[in-house]
Design a protein that fits this description.
CATH class of the largest domain: Alpha Beta
Structural class: alpha/beta
EC number: 3.6.4.13
Motif (Q motif): 24-52
Number of domains: 2
Catalytic activity: ATP + H2O = ADP + phosphate + H(+)
CATH architecture of the largest domain: 3-Layer(aba) Sandwich
Helix content: 40-55%
CATH topology of the largest domain: Rossmann fold
Largest sheet: 9 strands, mixed
Radius of gyration: 28 Å
Keywords: ATP-binding, Helicase, Hydrolase, Nucleotide-binding, Nucleus, Ribosome biogenesis, RNA-binding
Strand order of the largest sheet: 1-2-9-3-8-7-4-6-5
Number of helices: 23
Distance between the termini: 106 Å
CATH superfamily of the largest domain: P-loop containing nucleotide triphosphate hydrolases
Number of strands: 16
Main location: nucleus
């Protein structure tokens, strides 16, 4: 194992070398048998790189600052040692009852995920390990009673944690573990004052975990506040880890984004669950209404929706209720309006130039440890506190990521495609790129950020090449696809600007009706609820029934394969063949009905009655 000292003479472990721990399984780790049983049940057979490195160090009581990519298993890397520590204390003292662990996350979605993961890992020791999620929508009285019961693990956002500490309902007196998950995002979400207050409230000697996808100045600030000489793990997955994701880029005109999306999903060229990333909230609803014209169901995820609704949408997607989720990465979009001296494009150009010269440092971007230049730091506005959908949220069994609108940076692209090809499964990333000579040619579907698509694509290719991955061009046979163009035009014509606005207000109106907080208000003011429910939807998109079916004359002569000269080589999660047993049963039912009809015809008393015999 290679170790070296950083600028503060702190041991740093480089994760790019071959490691003995990387080849072991969970059976070789000193974990409680009940924990191993839970891991087996969840099919955790072999620890990931961050788990293999962090868990042994954590069990020794060391502070850890770990940088590992999205989806690398950071949650289990800190939860398993924490639960193991709690079980050891309970073994020696069954009556021991205290809040021993505080896990801080930037959003309620992440808090819900961590809380569910604790439940999975403690499935066979539930009586000994109890957790509480302070971000849940409950009254203050209920929350006080939960904390009074002294759960072992408390999961919270910094704001909710400090609110309960200030009201004396949450005591950190017996705290043994502190975790700051997604540490590079916590301060940028506006929790700086809360973290300063928590640093004063947390007792000395608490074991601290800082888990992050990148090492930024924010992470460095948190390290100074909470850590005492942490072991720094800079972990890079092996190059073949990313080989499970096939990456493709399609150069097309602005309106052809909609055309190709329609063809891809209507003809099932991509099978399995898909996340479509778009540039802003407006395009979320525009694309959703467009797909609805063809009978293609999808759900929308953006920061405009209430938190409970966002959690519910992710759960519905993970359960398979929806196969397509349209997500707006709002943090990128909102950040564009707040730039001062440089655009995001210019900043990343500077970063990529500096990547080639190791002696230089950059203010931000794709570098591993960015250092600030005097007077060049751009303050983040309050709008940027919204979460980035490409980070943190746990989407399960994603077959494909479709970048309908290309992200602004190569780093964001990496986070986006990290939603697929996880846990040893294959995945695909498909990105639409607008050539410079095609930008602005089709005003109704034009998106301003697409002006820089080619420059961003060059940086993405450069970054992926460094990681040992290839982003290939993908070509559709546009002569065959053009047969569907008039249908795309019809559908786009129905999705007007007013229809998009109406879709957004309808969604918010539905959330208001379902809101628990407003339930009592509506009980006292039933007229307001009635008006809200029956508010006229005068400008909704006109649905054209004929667009839901694809006539045979539109299909290429070679079928679906005729649309592309290349084979993606991806097998989806869902079965595509018709169930033969179900088909046989339906056939037999049809035969049975016909026999019953014939039999009943022969014994019809009106036809067989003979009065002469009587």
């Amino acid at each position: 194992m290679k170790r070296k000292l950083d600028a503060n003479n702190v041991p740093s472990v480089e994760g790019t070398e071959d490691k003995k721990l990387d080849s072991q399984d969970f059976e070789n780790l000193p974990l409680d048998p009940r924990l191993r049983q839970a891991l087996t049940q969840q099919k955790f057979m072999k620890p990931t790189l961050v788990q293999a490195e962090a868990i042994p160090l954590a069990l020794q009581g060391k502070d850890i600052l770990a940088r590992a990519q999205t989806g690398s298993g950071k949650t289990a890397a800190y939860l398993l040692p924490i639960i193991q520590s709690i079980l050891q204390k309970k073994t020696s003292n069954r009556a021991h009852k205290a809040i021993s662990s505080l896990i801080l996350v930037p959003t309620r979605e992440l808090a819900e995920q961590v809380h569910n993961t604790v439940a999975l890992f403690s499935a066979f020791c539930g009586k000994d390990v109890r957790s509480a999620n302070l971000t849940q929508k409950v009254s203050d009285a209920v929350q006080r009673s939960i904390l009074a019961d002294l759960p072992d693990i408390v999961i919270s956002t910094p704001a909710r944690a400090i609110a309960n500490i200030n009201s004396s309902t949450f005591s950190l007196e017996n705290l043994a573990h502190l975790v700051i998950d997604e540490a590079d995002l916590v301060l940028s979400y506006g929790y700086e004052d809360d973290m300063q207050s928590l640093a004063k409230a947390v007792p000395r000697g608490v074991q601290t975990f800082l888990m992050s996808a990148t090492l930024t100045s924010e992470v460095d600030a948190l390290k100074g506040l909470f850590c005492r000489s942490p072991v720094i793990l800079k972990l890079e997955e092996k190059e073949d880890e990313g080989a499970s994701i096939s990456q493709f880029a399609v150069r097309c005109a602005e309106d052809e984004k909609f055309l190709l999306t329609y063809v891809i999903f209507k003809l099932q060229l991509i099978k399995g669950k898909c996340i479509i990333f778009v540039g802003d909230v407006d395009r979320c609803y525009r694309l959703k209404l467009f797909l609805e014209q063809f009978g293609i169901k999808s759900c929308v995820l953006n920061s405009e929706l209430p938190v409970n609704s966002r959690i519910h949408v992710v759960q519905e997607f993970n359960k398979g209720v929806y196969d397509i989720i349209i997500a707006a990465d709002d943090q990128e979009v909102l950040g564009e309006a707040t730039r001062k001296s440089k655009s995001a494009q210019e900043e990343e150009e500077e970063v990529d130039e500096n990547d080639d010269e190791e002696s230089k440092t950059a203010s931000k971007g794709d570098n591993e440890e960015p250092k600030e230049r005097p007077g060049k730091r751009r303050k983040k506005s309050s709008k940027e506190k919204d979460y980035g959908i490409s980070r943190g949220i746990d989407f399960q069994d994603v077959a494909c990521v479709l970048n309908f609108d290309l992200p602004k940076t190569s780093k964001s692209y990496t986070h986006r495609i990290g939603r697929t090809g996880r846990a040893g499964k294959t995945g695909m990333a498909l990105s639409f790129v607008i050539p410079a000579d095609q930008f602005g040619k089709h005003k109704p579907t034009s998106f301003s950020a697409a002006k820089h698509d080619e420059a961003v694509l060059a940086k993405i290719i450069k970054r992926q090449t460094k990681l040992g991955r290839e982003l290939k061009p993908y070509h559709f046979d546009m002569k065959q696809v053009d047969a569907f163009r008039y249908r795309m035009t019809d559908a786009l014509r129905a999705v007007t600007r007013l229809a998009v606005q109406d879709a957004r207000t309808t969604e918010i109106r539905q959330e208001l009706v379902k809101s628990e907080k407003l339930k009592r208000h509506f009980e006292e003011n039933p007229d307001e609820l009635r008006h809200l429910r029956h508010d006229g939807e005068l400008r909704s998109a006109r649905v054209q029934a004929h667009l839901k079916h694809v006539p045979d004359y539109l299909m290429p002569s070679k079928g679906r394969r005729g649309l592309s000269s290349e084979d993606v080589g991806y097998v989806g999660f869902h079965k595509t063949k018709e169930n033969p047993i179900r088909k046989a049963r339906e056939k037999n039912r049809g035969k049975a009905r016909s026999k019953v009809g014939k039999r009943s015809g022969k014994v019809d008393p009106l036809k067989t009655f003979n009065a002469s015999k009587r």
